[in-house]
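Appendix B. Chain record.
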Amino acid sequence: MKLAQDIIIKPIISEASMMGVPQKKYTFKVAEGVNKIEIAKAVEELFGVKVAKVNTMRVNGKLRRYGRYEGYTSSWRKAIVTLTEDSKTIEFFDGMM
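Structure tokens predicted for this chain:
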């Protein structure tokens, strides 16, 4: 079993992800090979909240050039976590608003 710190890699702070904060939707970069149940338990353990549902998606790497060389950035996995109505918010994201 993986630790919660190994499952949730980092929060995603962008304009699009911050628009979901008032609806209690938070976006995280998560590890490869974990399922929605493991993501929900990790968020509940790390932040002390109640998770209603988890949506996951793969983000493909983008083509980048450096002079005459080109390659792809790493692909990664993103999770959008929705909290229950009676759950408290995550304070880290409240400081960004």
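Further analysis of this model is presented in Appendix C.
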